[in-house]
Amino acid sequence: MIQIPDDVALATRQGWPAELRFLVEQYPREVWQGHGNLGQMAQFWLQRHDMFRTLGGALDDATLQFREGKIAPAAFQAWFTPRLQFFLSQLEEHHHVEDLHYFPVFRAAETRLERGFEVLEQDHDVIHAEIAASVDAANDVLKVLASEAARADAQASDALRRATDSYATVGTKLLRHLTRHLGDEEDLIIPLILDRSEAGLGVG
What's the domain count of the chain? Predict the structure, then answer.
């Protein structure tokens, strides 16, 4: 595994360093929509990113409301379980496609961005470890919810509170890191597509 310096590590970075910003400075976000080279692939990819942001935020908000007693356990479980499964499975599939198909094309097209793609691949490793942690923590919540259906006592409620707090910690961390990753990934890739076009890159 490549050692990633703190200035670009997912947990600490605040955007890309200057040497990786030469294209996003030429093509800032305000010019993306409506640009002639923003093709169907790039638009679909941005829509997927927006879906991850929206659904991740909804999961985070639902967990907070459940912790505050604003959602009944049965209603929370029925809403939360299928959406978390969809969110995490789609995220892993999305990263798999990027790692195998898109990143090799982009890094070959612009070698000055090589370090950026190494960082993004390292991000994927970090996020996948956090996905695994989220699955474990969510399963703990669901196990306690199943036991609470038969036991409505203080001990069960305490166990549910601990399990939910644990999930909230790892889930919020995952969403924070994912949000950072998605934005930085877009700042690296969309300007490259606008500069070269999807057809020119062979991804259209």
Answer: 1
